[in-house]
Amino acid sequence: MEKTAKSKARRVLIVDEHPLVRVPLAALIDAHPDFVVCGHACNRREALAVAHAKSPDLALVGLKLRDSHGLDVIKDLHSWRPELCVIALSMFDGYNWIERSLRAGARGFVSKAQQPADLLAAMRQVLAGGLYVQGAVGRRLAKHWAGADSSAARLDDLPDREYQVLWYIGHGYPVREIAEHLRVSVPTVETYRSRLKEKLGCDDHTDLLKCAIQWAHDQPAL
User: What separation, in Å, do the N-terminal and C-terminal C-alpha atoms of the chain show?
Assistant: First the structure.
């Protein structure tokens, strides 16, 4: 009976850089007869390879990965199969990351601080065709969209890659490390920094650093 039930279960791909997240999460999901974990991945390359090989119904994607950013994986998966349900996972629930995850193609966002039951509810909701953002977070996101000041609006209008570079600058990452995390060249990061300086009205790179640090102080981690 259990084997028959599992044969009808929805297939789930887990993408996260930490085995200590992936393995317990897989055990939690596999304990429920309507789900079966079809694969794990720790980075963008593995995520796409497993997705193509296993054809999951749902992908859980951590925003912080080893060789790239979860937003890039979400975009890749959405471009490959728009009907694939994707839920973004993050340590915190900052509305900027939620908004960008949804824009990238995710159908839900779950903070890793939420309860396991919340994740299971989110999985069932998006597979049923819905959108999942935790109640309080959703209200905060809606309030932000409705009442954003001009500074916040400028930040919201930044392309995802520039937004990611700003986050890394504000959290003290040197240019070379930013390039390694985003899998781009150092000159490319310098180009993004110049664009940010112009768009945010900063006089020089030192002014940009101060601006990024001040902004990052109120921002959650990935």
Answer: 41
